[in-house]
Amino acid sequence: MGSPQQPTYIIPPPSGPNWKAPLLIGALVLLGVSSIFQFVQLDKVRSESRADITKLTNDVNAAIDRMKVDSNEQVQASKRTVETLQSQLHQQQMQANALVGQARVDAQRKVEALQAKVADEQKAEEAAISQVKATADTATTQLASVTTDVGTVKTDLGTTKSQLEQTISNLKRATGELDNHSSLIATNATELKALRELGERNYAEFTINKNKQFTRVADVSIELKKADPKKNRFTIEITADDKTVEKKDRTVNEPIQFYTSKARQPYEIVINSVKKDAISGYLATPKVQTGRGGA
Q1: What band does 288 get if pLDDT is binned at 50, 70 and 90?
Q2: 51-88 confidence digits (pLDDT tens)
């Protein structure tokens, strides 16, 4: 706070010659009044300052007390939090210990199961080895037997080959009705097999019943018109290339030859068996099928 302004007093000069004394007295009175005013003002400022300081001190102490209370509550809250965390940690440790114990039990069970599986695998392997050994012994025995059988088969093949050659040599050669073309004739299944082994022609066996219908054999059609089993004679009609030809009063094992537009060599029908209403035999056709340009 600033000092109060001092009042200004204007004193007129004395009219007489002793004007200085009253002027001096007035100045002293004025100085005394000013000092008293300043002292009063200063005491007022001091009182106000002390009141402010007291109020400030009380406010600070109250704030400190509140801070102490707040700090104490925070400490208690922190303490409770720490205790809660410690309790949770203890529970987690107990659960972890329980899990570890269970994990050990599970691991032990897995080890025992694995050991049992390994033992079973070893037993299975030993059994497999024994089985393989037994199979190998059996295979060795069978191989020896097969070797013997191969020798027997070779002998049989040699015999069969000799028999086939003998059968072929016994085949009859007959001359057909076309251009004096001769061919080997099979009179039974064995001789027909020998002809097939030669591989010169294709052979198709057939049995044709008397039913007024054509029977398809390879690429020709044959119909039985008449059969005489007592005389082994028969009559047939052959259709090839849309042409039908009758072969009348023929005998068994007689080559019936005819040309088609598919081959230069003749087709050949041989009847080996004549029954009352059926005939059996085979059709021989050339291996190479090339056009002749006409029948």
Answers
A1: confident
A2: 888 888 888 888 888 877 777 788 788 888 988 988 99
**Residue 278: Cβ-neighbour burial (10 angstroms; 0-12, 13-18, 19+):** middle
Band (pLDDT 50/70/90 cuts) for residue 295 is very low
CB proximity list for 187: less than 8 A, separation 6 or greater = 172, 253, 272
Enumerate the β-bridge partners of residue 245: 238
The closest alpha carbon to 3, from 50, 45, 61, 33, belongs to: 45
Give this prediction's pTM.
0.45
Residue 225 · residue 237 · CB < 8 Å: yes
Contact 91, 99 (CB under 8 A): no
Angle at 28 between CA 27 and CA 32, to 5 degrees: 120
**If you ran DSSP here, which 8-state letter would residue 119 be given?**
H
Q: What is the pLDDT of residues 150-208, one digit of tens each?
A: 666 555 655 555 655 656 655 667 666 666 667 889 999 999 999 999 988 999 999 99
Distance CA 283, CA 215 (A): 12
pLDDT confidence of residue 294: 45
- Cα gap 262→265, rounded to integer Å: 9
Q: Which residues contact 233 (CB under 8 A, 6 or more apart)?
A: 227, 249, 250, 251, 274
Q: For 129, which DSSP code?
A: H
Q: What is the spatial distance between Cα 123 and Cα 101, in angstroms, rounded to a whole number? A: 33
Residue 184 contacts by C-beta under 8 Å, 6 or more apart in sequence?
Answer: 168, 171, 172, 173, 195, 198
Give, in order, the Cα–Cα distances in Å from 235 to each of 149, 187, 228, 271.
Answer: 50, 19, 9, 11
Where does residue 13 rank: exposed (0-12), middle (13-18), buried (19+ CB within 10 A)? Answer: exposed
